[in-house]
Each structure stands twice: as structure tokens, then as C-alpha cells.
């Protein structure tokens, strides 16, 4: 246990929380909980070109919905704030200036046209594209003069030209990159805002982040980051890069092949419990291959040592299976709370005991909460009978029985299980039918199928009045 362990989730607000983002958030959260450290939420919102109205609010709301509470962050506050990068731009400029003064960064005056032309030439000549470092040769004095004269500029990191960098990643283990693959990264853009790379390193240092746990797509940025740490004289955090999330065809998980927004899964009726459990398993597994974990159990079990290098397939069928499991096994009250909005959408306001019966009836029959009201529709929808059903319904005894039931149901409103059993007994005494001959036609008349729930459930869920109408209808259609 250590209070020096500080991890962070540092999303750039894009308008929605990507499932990969939720996995990063979850692993950071679990790691912090496991070792008694702190989980920090930092909003990386310095890219003005990608600003999306309402994105931050949406992100914070989704984080709240899934219950991953940060120990420090935009809403909670904390001693290392502000937790919005857009409110920290002075800091980034300060460190960029320090890097320039040290000769580790330089002003670049290339226009976007210059860069486009460079790229075109590189492509034509079969070279890898990237900045060729041409502004490195401008003397610092000249550069300062051009800046003072108001010329547009960016600040670039002067990365080594040759050799390799090797570092240790807690998931990927020993990783080596050649410096020839690393560009002179822009640190401050022409609008004065920092790029992700500078802001991320500065903040991870200032916020005393001990472990950087994030998606594998950032692995290739590590050389630049480590170089920045070195040049600024700071100790870098430990790194753990999580495996890619893949579609079943092993391509990178993308919007084109299905939903990637956490909100989409919530709107489709996946429980938060399912999402967290399912996402925890995308790249991590427990000893003994156990699969079902509550968040509290994950907090105890999780370890970075069991995070795998291999890409993790996002298997929708498994997600549906797991959701079905949770729908069946969570306490009914909890499922009612979660599923209520889906029923409201389909049926409008329902009596609490009808809602509870609907949910209890449909939860073992559906994989998502969106499918649950579907399962219940039969109770209330118009029934259409096949020729075969009609023949059964026209049986003389059954017809008389329907009349009897319509009258009986009209007499009182409270049809408890006992009351329905009493009526069944009376029906047997009066008509001499029992077993299949009794239940089959009644279920068919009241529910539209000879199979299905008990008659007392049907009466409750379809409603007494509707049952009377159905009985009268099958009599008049004789
Ligand atoms: N802002 C980056 C993102 O969008 C954070 C990456 C990191 O964790 O360093 O994912």
C-alpha cells in the first residue's frame, strides 16, 4: 500500500466516452484502489480545433454514471489543480521557454504550405514523411528577432537524430525505438496552445503521477515524452500500455463496425455492472479464468501483472451473455431501478407492482434492458390467432368457460394468486376440465399462446379489463 501511487485518466473530450477510454479509466481506477493510491481525472482540452460543445459535461456525466469517482479532478478539486489543461496554458509556455533556453527546443517558422510541400517531396522520393528539422539551423538570436517581429511560429522539440532509446513498460516489457523514427515534435502550436505531448508530460510531472496507464496507441509517443522528462530534469513515471481493442475480425475497434461510445451501450440497455465487468476483461484476466466480478471484487483482484500484450477482442455476444447473467442475478430492486426508463419509454407510467412483475417476468428472457419491454408487449398488444388456434378456441366447453371467466373477472378487481387458483377450482367443478384442457384454451385466449406464464401473472400483467375484453372477443368470433 502506498499513498505515493498516483494515476490518472486524461481524456481529450471528443463528445463521447469511447469504450477504450472507459477501459483506461477503469484500469487506472482499479490500480489506485488496489494499492491504496489516488485516481486523478484530468481533462486534456487544449486542442481548440477539436472543441466539441458539451463534450466535457458529457464525459463527466458518463464517468459519474459508471461510478468511477476520481479522488482529484475537475469536480472534486484537489491540491494539484486546475484539472483542465486549458486553464494551465501559462505553465506549458513557461516550460517551452525553458526548453528553448536550454537548446532542447527551437522555434520553427515553416508555414503549413511549406510543410505540405515537404511532405509531397518526401512521398515522391519514397522517404518517410516527417519534419526535416530545417529550422534547427536558425540561430537563436535570429529566431528571437523573428518572434519579436510578430512572425508566426511553433516550438519544436529537438530530438536526437540517431541511436535508439530503450525503456521498460510494465506490459510491453523492454521496448526499443530508433530516434530516426521520431519527429521533432511540435510542443507549442501557432495558436499558443501546447500539443498533447508537452502538456501531458508537464502535467504528469506537476501532478506527481507515478504510473501512466493508457492505450497502446500512445506507446510510440514514449520516446518523445522520456526525452522531455530528461531535458526538463524530471523523473519519468512508470509506464503501462494497454493492449489494443479489436473487432472480432481482429481489425482495430472502430466506429465503422459498431458502437464505440459507452453511452450507446447504456442506451441499448446494458447494465453498468456488465460494462465494467466486461471491459475489465478486455486485456486483463484473473487467476483461474473467473469471469464474473463486481467492481468491488475487481478492486481486490486487479493487477497490472495480469494485463496481456495481445489485442483484446470486443465480443458483442459475450457482452450480451454477461448482461443476461446480471439481469438474472442482480437483486430485483436493482434491476427495476436500472430498467425503469426502458419500460417508461414503451408503456408510459406503470403501477409499481405491475412494473416489478414485468421486470421479473422479462429479465430471464432478455439480454438487454431494451429487449425487456419487448418481451412484455404480448401482454398488452392485440392478439392475432392462427387458424389452428381458432379451432381450439371454438371448442364448446372452452367457449362456455370463457364466458364464465369473463363474468367472474368482472365481479371483482383484486386477482391475487389465491383468487385465481380459487377460480380455476371453480372452473374445474363447473366444467369438469383440468390440466391441459383447462389451461391451454385460457392461456391462448388471454395471452395468445398456450404456453407462457401462469394465469395469475397474465391477468396482472395484461390487466383485468384487457382480459375481459379478450375473453369476450374470442366468444364473439365464434
Ligand atoms: N489525452 C490523451 C487521450 O486522449 C491522453 C493519453 C494519455 O493518457 O497520455 O487519450
Would you kindly provide a written description of the structure presented here, covering whatever features stand out?
By secondary structure, the protein is mainly alpha-helical. Helix content is 48%, strand content 9%. The chain contains 20 helices and 11 strands. The strands form 5 sheets. A 3-stranded antiparallel beta sheet has the order 3-4-7. Strands 1-2 form a two-stranded parallel sheet. β1, α1 (19-35) and β2 form a beta-alpha-beta unit. α1 (19-35) crosses α10 and α6 (196-206) crosses α7. The longest helix is centred in the first third of the chain and has 17 residues, at 19-35. The chain is elongated. It starts with 5 loop residues before the first strand and ends with a helix. The mean pLDDT is 94. Bound molecules: glutamic acid. Glutamic acid binds next to α6.
- Order of neighbouring strands in the sheet with most strands: 3-4-7
Low-confidence stretches: none
- Mean of all residue-level pLDDT scores: 94
Helix/strand-derived category reads mainly alpha
Helical content, roughly? 40-55%
The biggest beta sheet, please?
A: 3 strands, antiparallel
Ligand types = glutamic acid
- If you compute it from the alpha carbons, what radius of gyration comes out, rounded to the nearest whole angstrom? 32 Å
Strand content: 5-15%
Number of helices: 20
Number of strands: 11
- Globally, the shape reads elongated
Measured between the Cα atoms of the first and last residue, the distance is 77 Å
